[in-house]
What does this fold into?
Amino acid sequence: MVVTCPQCAKRYMLDEALLPQEGRQVRCIACHHVWRQMPDVTLHTTIPPLIGGADLAFQTNVASERRSSLLGWILFLAILISCTSILIFGRNVIVAHWPKSERYYGLVGLQVTLPGAGLSIANASSQIYHNGPIEMIRIMGNVINASENVRPIPPLKIKLMGDASHHKCKEAFKGEGCILDHWEHRLSEQSLLPGEKIHFETDPRPKVEGTKHIRVDF
It folds into this structure.
């Protein structure tokens, strides 16, 4: 049944079974007014009387529920915007680790530019010579812009590859042995015009014993 405080008109829901036939003292939690509440004679059934008073429960605060709901939506939108930003602005990194995702970005009209996209490495070779007792290695070759647009030139990543059992093995590389040594080489130019070619030649570096082959990519 609905009970209304005669002092402040605060309304509460009260279980009819809590009121004996002769009524009982109740107190308003809002204004602390005390009055005798009689049961609704149309619904009242005889039950054993209860001893003592009972505080009425607070009515559900609709404003608090709306505020909590609003905060929940704000949090959801913030998370959604953050995830969308990561997917859009971090797409190059995502595609680099998951190449198949490039197709999905293309479906929504987002261009993915991976390091070295449109560029190719040609005529890569190595030169080995001795500097006293130390065997040195120098990598050389050409970078060609095979696209129809100006392309930035990222640093070249050079890896000396050996058997996975080598004691200097640093990192396994897709089933092609392991990386014995690696470094980056920056070219003298920062970009290439369409069809343009540039020659590169790295500084000499000590060759790691056990090197089987050399990888050069972007």
Remarks:
- The helical segments are 62-89, 91-97, 101-107.
- The chain has a mean pLDDT of 80.
- The longest helix spans residues 62-89.
